[in-house]
Amino acid sequence: MEISNAKQEINITPELQARIDELLSHYPADKKKSALLPVLHEVQDAHDNWLSVPLQDKVAEILEIKPIEVYEVVTFYTMYNQRPIGNYMFEFCRTSCCCLRGAEDLMEYTCEKLGIKEGETTPDGKFTVVGVECLGACGYAPMLQIGDYYKEHLTKEKIDQLIEECKAGQVNLH
Amino acid sequence: MGRKILLEHANVPGIKSYEVYRKMGGYASVEKALKSMTPDEVVEQVKTSGLRGRGGAGFPTGLKWSFIDKKSGNPRHLVCNADESEPGTFKDRYLMEYIPHLLIEGMITSSYALGCNLSYIYIRGEYMWVFRILEQAIKEAYANGWLGKNIMGTGWDLDLYVHCGAGAYICGEETALIESLEGKRGNPRIKPPFPAVKGLWQEPTVVNNVESIAAVPWIVNNGGEEYAKIGIGRSTGTKLISASGHCKNPGVYEIELGLSVDEFMNSDEYLGGMMDDRPLKALVPGGSSVPILPANLIFKTTEGNDRLMTYESLSEGGFESGSMLGSGGFIVYNDTSCIVRNTWNFSRFYHHESCGQCSPCREGTGWLEKVLHRIETGEGREEDIELLWDIQRKIEGNTICPLGDAAAWPVAAAIRHFREEFEYHVRFPEKIKNRDHYVNEPFEKVRHLVTKQTV
């Protein structure tokens, strides 16, 4: 994923700090680095679902590790976003089992409906559509992930409905 | 009706909660083990059971446990591999989502057997809602004295936590998983040393799949011998199968090992036959990494034996005419599916998921994807088929971890059993331009074109 230089306001709220402290308590005191992946998830969730370089530096400071140790992890794992993304990111599983049940058609339908290509975000910043690899929902295909949740057994009608619900702010991400 | 061990109570209302789980007999294995068995006795029961690793490799769990270094006195860890990412596999998720306390109970009993005081469940980051279900279950287990200090007054302490990944198939490989749990990129380690000696934070560690650990409570409660009575030969016990693709009833099923593939595929208790009653064309029985089987090798082996859902029967005939039980990801293909397209799709997956450490895999998976893509889109050349064969052969066995093999095998099997389809793609590019090219004209209807040209 392309790195973005867009400005991001960094705000480690007391709630976020408390959650980070809780995660840190899961590992021996001298193994703070082990908490890196879960901490990055929490920090990303609290920052519009992406991690700017300054925010990654902040995480390094919190965990008392070098910034490069955070960068190499963020660039390796696909769930960390290095650029701003839409409020609602539709992540379609496009691995074989889902394709057998029409995942490609459905992703194209969604892109057309939103007027974007796969990998793009709508100009209003609301929606992003991406194809991802197997999400472990093969028997409930086609499906997509949105935030922390899966939407399964999808049809065009269900996509229409989901888009409407997102527009109305009725979809929980976390 | 097959016997249920793991999912017996999965449909009991409220089974996700501690109270209901406990009322149904939950945590009995912890009581039994801690009160009346030594850790080594638990290990012995698991050895006797014949339980084999359910993540895909099928290595005997008890034997793996016996390798853990107890002599050095270093802290030991049990890490549950819940990084389920093998295409076609979604069984662990089902188990954790519907009956989370079974995994927690298994983790406690197994940690006792291994003498661990700090254990983890490593779950893939995409299963975030399951992560929260497990966090809740662990909280309840702490509140009821099954975790923490001095469990049941025995003086044994155990802390258990869930740790989430962030989207990397490779972290399902045990040493990559350990790296990831240490907060690093998921690069597999060179073995030896094995995790049983130097694992998490260089301390002795056992990594086991969710389903393997979830089988432990039943084994401890009923004895390893009872478990070994289920199944056939060295395939003992029950197995969760995740079925997807063109079957009538996709989903997760618990089967007794030894059930015939025919019954699993066609009886109404299981998959109920094919969706829309179209012909069965191929089967991937154990997740995307295992060889694909053509229709004539699915229900019978070349020896004429019934093909059974066991480690041995599914691999009968080796890679020439068999496959593997693997993770139990059972992917069904009907006559509208294109084997070339499916193979390209799998290759894209492995290219995407290669960690990049070993050049045969990093470069080779990219080449496989590229060459398969051009064949699938009508840009292929006759010599590409040999090229694919050559690339996969050079990846297999030449990498640190099995991802290289997993990328190579599906390509080899597709060429071995469906070579004519590759030739058709190369020779009749105008016929395969549309990605649904076999929907209106299944390959069986055009096969004669290829045969004619070959002669």
TrEMBL record, chain A:
Q: Which SUPFAM superfamilies match?
A: Thioredoxin-like
- Coiled-coil stretches are none
Show the PROSITE patterns listed in the entry.
COMPLEX1_24K
CDD domains (alphabetical):
TRX_Fd_NuoE
Q: Which cofactor does it need?
A: [2Fe-2S] cluster
* Signal peptide limits: none
Concerning InterPro entries, the annotation shows:
NuoE-like, NuoE_dom, NuoE_N, Thioredoxin-like_sf
Record keywords: 2Fe-2S, Iron, Iron-sulfur, Metal-binding
Q: Which domain of life is it from?
A: Bacteria
Q: What does the similarity note say?
A: Belongs to the complex I 24 kDa subunit family.
What's the protein name? NADH dehydrogenase subunit E
Species for this entry: Flavobacterium suaedae
Which gene codes for it?
A: nuoE
From TrEMBL, chain B:
In which organism is this protein found? Flavobacterium suaedae
Classification via PANTHER family: NADH-QUINONE OXIDOREDUCTASE SUBUNIT F
PROSITE patterns, alphabetized: COMPLEX1_51K_1, COMPLEX1_51K_2
Which N-terminal residues, if any, form the signal peptide?
A: none
Q: What is this protein called?
A: NADH-quinone oxidoreductase subunit F
Role summary? NDH-1 shuttles electrons from NADH, via FMN and iron-sulfur (Fe-S) centers, to quinones in the respiratory chain.
Q: Does the keyword Repeat apply?
A: no
**NCBIfam families registered for this protein in UniProt:** nuoF_fam (TIGR01959), PRK13596.1 (NF010120)
EC number of this enzyme:
7.1.1.-
Gene that this sequence comes from: nuoF
Judging by the UniProt lineage, the source's domain of life is Bacteria
